[in-house]
Write a structure and sequence with these properties.
Blueprint lengths: L1 E5 L3 H12 L4 E5 L2 H8 L6 E4 L8 H11 L4 E6 L4 H9 L4 E4 L4 H14 L7 E4 L2 E4 L4 E4 L2 E2 L4 H12 L7 H8 L10 H13 L5 E4 L3 E4 L4
Helix pairs in contact: 2-3, 6-8
Protein name: DNA-binding response regulator, OmpR family, contains REC and winged-helix (WHTH) domain
Keywords: DNA-binding, Phosphoprotein
Organism: Micromonospora krabiensis
Length: about 220
Protein backbone atom coordinates (compact mmCIF):
# COMPACT_ATOMS: atom_id res chain seq x y z
CA UNK A 1 0.00 0.00 0.00
CA UNK A 2 1.31 3.46 -0.95
CA UNK A 3 0.53 6.25 1.54
CA UNK A 4 1.15 9.99 1.59
CA UNK A 5 1.48 11.73 4.97
CA UNK A 6 1.25 15.54 4.88
CA UNK A 7 1.51 17.51 8.12
CA UNK A 8 3.44 20.67 9.03
CA UNK A 9 4.26 19.18 12.44
CA UNK A 10 7.43 17.55 11.16
CA UNK A 11 8.07 15.35 14.18
CA UNK A 12 4.52 14.02 14.12
CA UNK A 13 4.58 13.46 10.35
CA UNK A 14 7.87 11.54 10.57
CA UNK A 15 6.61 9.45 13.52
CA UNK A 16 3.39 8.57 11.70
CA UNK A 17 5.32 7.63 8.56
CA UNK A 18 7.81 5.48 10.44
CA UNK A 19 5.01 3.72 12.30
CA UNK A 20 3.09 2.95 9.11
CA UNK A 21 6.24 1.59 7.48
CA UNK A 22 6.43 -1.00 10.27
CA UNK A 23 3.13 -2.28 8.89
CA UNK A 24 4.68 -2.75 5.44
CA UNK A 25 3.30 0.43 3.89
CA UNK A 26 5.33 2.52 1.45
CA UNK A 27 5.09 6.04 2.87
CA UNK A 28 6.05 9.42 1.38
CA UNK A 29 6.15 12.46 3.70
CA UNK A 30 5.81 16.19 3.14
CA UNK A 31 5.27 19.12 5.46
CA UNK A 32 2.99 21.48 3.52
CA UNK A 33 0.15 21.46 1.05
CA UNK A 34 2.33 22.51 -1.87
CA UNK A 35 4.50 19.43 -1.39
CA UNK A 36 1.41 17.24 -1.14
CA UNK A 37 0.00 18.54 -4.43
CA UNK A 38 3.36 18.04 -6.10
CA UNK A 39 3.53 14.41 -5.01
CA UNK A 40 -0.04 13.49 -5.91
CA UNK A 41 0.65 14.92 -9.35
CA UNK A 42 3.46 12.39 -9.81
CA UNK A 43 2.57 9.33 -7.72
CA UNK A 44 -0.57 7.29 -7.26
CA UNK A 45 -1.46 6.82 -3.58
CA UNK A 46 -3.91 4.41 -2.01
CA UNK A 47 -4.36 6.67 1.04
CA UNK A 48 -3.46 10.27 1.90
CA UNK A 49 -3.24 11.31 5.57
CA UNK A 50 -3.71 15.08 5.57
CA UNK A 51 -3.50 17.73 8.26
CA UNK A 52 -6.20 20.31 7.51
CA UNK A 53 -4.22 23.36 8.61
CA UNK A 54 -0.98 23.42 6.60
CA UNK A 55 1.00 26.34 5.15
CA UNK A 56 0.69 27.03 1.44
CA UNK A 57 -2.21 25.04 0.10
CA UNK A 58 -4.28 23.77 3.02
CA UNK A 59 -5.19 20.18 3.63
CA UNK A 60 -8.73 21.11 2.62
CA UNK A 61 -7.48 22.23 -0.80
CA UNK A 62 -5.40 19.07 -1.23
CA UNK A 63 -8.42 16.96 -0.27
CA UNK A 64 -10.63 18.80 -2.75
CA UNK A 65 -8.02 18.27 -5.47
CA UNK A 66 -7.82 14.55 -4.76
CA UNK A 67 -11.59 14.18 -4.64
CA UNK A 68 -11.91 15.80 -8.06
CA UNK A 69 -9.03 13.95 -9.69
CA UNK A 70 -10.66 10.56 -10.00
CA UNK A 71 -7.44 8.92 -8.81
CA UNK A 72 -9.25 6.81 -6.22
CA UNK A 73 -7.00 7.95 -3.37
CA UNK A 74 -8.78 7.69 -0.01
CA UNK A 75 -8.31 10.64 2.34
CA UNK A 76 -7.94 10.58 6.12
CA UNK A 77 -8.11 14.04 7.69
CA UNK A 78 -5.82 14.20 10.72
CA UNK A 79 -6.45 17.42 12.63
CA UNK A 80 -6.88 19.15 15.97
CA UNK A 81 -10.25 20.55 14.84
CA UNK A 82 -12.50 18.21 16.80
CA UNK A 83 -15.94 19.82 16.61
CA UNK A 84 -18.87 18.17 14.86
CA UNK A 85 -19.06 21.10 12.46
CA UNK A 86 -15.37 20.61 11.61
CA UNK A 87 -15.93 16.91 10.93
CA UNK A 88 -18.95 17.55 8.74
CA UNK A 89 -17.05 20.22 6.80
CA UNK A 90 -14.04 17.94 6.28
CA UNK A 91 -16.16 15.04 5.09
CA UNK A 92 -18.05 17.41 2.82
CA UNK A 93 -14.79 18.31 1.09
CA UNK A 94 -14.41 14.70 0.00
CA UNK A 95 -12.52 13.15 2.92
CA UNK A 96 -13.29 9.49 3.55
CA UNK A 97 -12.46 9.52 7.26
CA UNK A 98 -11.60 11.99 10.02
CA UNK A 99 -9.35 11.47 13.05
CA UNK A 100 -8.66 14.14 15.64
CA UNK A 101 -5.43 14.86 17.49
CA UNK A 102 -4.33 13.50 19.89
CA UNK A 103 -5.01 9.99 18.65
CA UNK A 104 -4.13 6.38 19.40
CA UNK A 105 -1.65 5.12 16.83
CA UNK A 106 -3.31 1.69 16.67
CA UNK A 107 -6.54 3.41 15.61
CA UNK A 108 -4.71 5.40 12.93
CA UNK A 109 -3.20 2.20 11.50
CA UNK A 110 -6.58 0.46 11.50
CA UNK A 111 -8.23 3.39 9.72
CA UNK A 112 -5.48 3.63 7.09
CA UNK A 113 -5.66 -0.11 6.45
CA UNK A 114 -9.45 0.08 6.10
CA UNK A 115 -9.19 2.97 3.64
CA UNK A 116 -6.52 1.10 1.70
CA UNK A 117 -8.88 -1.83 1.25
CA UNK A 118 -11.51 0.55 -0.11
CA UNK A 119 -9.09 2.15 -2.59
CA UNK A 120 -8.67 -1.10 -4.53
CA UNK A 121 -11.01 -3.81 -5.82
CA UNK A 122 -12.46 -5.80 -2.94
CA UNK A 123 -10.21 -8.60 -1.71
CA UNK A 124 -10.71 -11.12 1.11
CA UNK A 125 -9.30 -10.18 4.54
CA UNK A 126 -6.93 -13.15 4.26
CA UNK A 127 -5.27 -13.79 0.89
CA UNK A 128 -4.58 -17.45 0.12
CA UNK A 129 -2.68 -18.97 -2.79
CA UNK A 130 -0.50 -22.05 -3.28
CA UNK A 131 -0.47 -22.89 0.42
CA UNK A 132 0.35 -19.31 1.43
CA UNK A 133 -1.99 -17.30 3.66
CA UNK A 134 -1.44 -13.57 4.20
CA UNK A 135 -3.50 -11.74 6.83
CA UNK A 136 -3.06 -7.99 6.28
CA UNK A 137 -4.77 -6.81 9.49
CA UNK A 138 -2.82 -9.17 11.76
CA UNK A 139 0.35 -8.83 9.66
CA UNK A 140 0.81 -12.60 9.64
CA UNK A 141 1.95 -14.98 6.88
CA UNK A 142 1.80 -18.78 6.98
CA UNK A 143 2.87 -21.52 4.55
CA UNK A 144 0.83 -24.70 4.95
CA UNK A 145 0.00 -23.55 8.48
CA UNK A 146 3.63 -22.80 9.38
CA UNK A 147 4.42 -19.20 10.41
CA UNK A 148 6.73 -17.34 8.03
CA UNK A 149 8.56 -14.42 9.62
CA UNK A 150 8.99 -11.60 7.11
CA UNK A 151 10.44 -8.11 7.25
CA UNK A 152 8.00 -5.26 6.52
CA UNK A 153 9.37 -4.90 2.98
CA UNK A 154 9.14 -8.64 2.28
CA UNK A 155 5.56 -8.61 3.56
CA UNK A 156 4.71 -5.66 1.29
CA UNK A 157 6.15 -7.36 -1.79
CA UNK A 158 4.35 -10.63 -1.04
CA UNK A 159 1.12 -8.69 -0.52
CA UNK A 160 1.39 -7.09 -3.97
CA UNK A 161 2.13 -10.44 -5.60
CA UNK A 162 -0.75 -12.22 -3.88
CA UNK A 163 -3.22 -9.47 -4.72
CA UNK A 164 -2.26 -9.92 -8.37
CA UNK A 165 -3.80 -13.42 -8.26
CA UNK A 166 -1.32 -15.02 -10.62
CA UNK A 167 -0.86 -12.01 -12.89
CA UNK A 168 2.74 -11.11 -13.72
CA UNK A 169 3.91 -8.11 -11.67
CA UNK A 170 6.83 -6.14 -13.05
CA UNK A 171 9.77 -4.98 -10.95
CA UNK A 172 8.71 -1.40 -11.71
CA UNK A 173 5.23 -2.05 -10.33
CA UNK A 174 6.67 -3.61 -7.19
CA UNK A 175 8.91 -0.56 -6.70
CA UNK A 176 5.93 1.75 -7.11
CA UNK A 177 3.69 -0.10 -4.66
CA UNK A 178 6.12 -1.36 -2.01
CA UNK A 179 8.84 1.32 -1.90
CA UNK A 180 8.64 5.06 -1.24
CA UNK A 181 9.59 7.97 -3.51
CA UNK A 182 13.30 7.67 -2.70
CA UNK A 183 13.60 4.21 -4.26
CA UNK A 184 16.25 4.10 -6.98
CA UNK A 185 14.62 2.83 -10.21
CA UNK A 186 17.91 1.14 -11.10
CA UNK A 187 18.27 -0.66 -7.77
CA UNK A 188 18.38 -4.43 -7.42
CA UNK A 189 16.25 -4.19 -4.24
CA UNK A 190 13.30 -5.97 -5.86
CA UNK A 191 15.41 -8.91 -7.00
CA UNK A 192 17.10 -9.22 -3.61
CA UNK A 193 13.79 -9.00 -1.72
CA UNK A 194 12.16 -11.64 -3.93
CA UNK A 195 15.21 -13.88 -3.42
CA UNK A 196 14.95 -13.66 0.39
CA UNK A 197 11.18 -14.20 0.19
CA UNK A 198 11.71 -17.42 -1.73
CA UNK A 199 14.16 -18.67 0.88
CA UNK A 200 11.85 -17.90 3.77
CA UNK A 201 8.75 -19.36 2.12
CA UNK A 202 10.62 -22.55 1.27
CA UNK A 203 10.07 -25.36 -1.19
CA UNK A 204 8.33 -26.05 -3.44
CA UNK A 205 8.85 -22.57 -4.89
CA UNK A 206 5.70 -20.47 -5.35
CA UNK A 207 7.22 -17.19 -6.58
CA UNK A 208 8.32 -17.56 -10.18
CA UNK A 209 10.32 -15.26 -12.42
CA UNK A 210 8.91 -14.50 -15.85
CA UNK A 211 11.91 -13.48 -18.00
CA UNK A 212 11.89 -9.83 -19.09
CA UNK A 213 8.43 -9.38 -17.49
CA UNK A 214 8.50 -9.74 -13.71
CA UNK A 215 7.25 -12.11 -11.05
CA UNK A 216 4.12 -14.05 -10.24
CA UNK A 217 2.83 -16.52 -7.69
CA UNK A 218 1.92 -19.90 -9.17
CA UNK A 219 2.28 -21.13 -12.73
CA UNK A 220 5.29 -22.56 -14.52
CA UNK A 221 8.74 -21.01 -14.52
Amino acid sequence: MRVLVADDERLLADMVAEGLRRFSMAVDVCYDGDGALERIGVNRYDVAVLDRDMPGHTGDEVCRSLAGSGAGTRVLMLTAAAGIRDRVEGLGLGADDYLTKPFAFAELVARVQALGRRSAPAVPPVLERNGLALDVARHVVTRDGRPVNLSPKEFAVLHVLMRAEGRVVSAEELLEQAWDEFADPFTNAVRVTVMTLRKKIGQPAVIHTVPRAGYRIGGPE
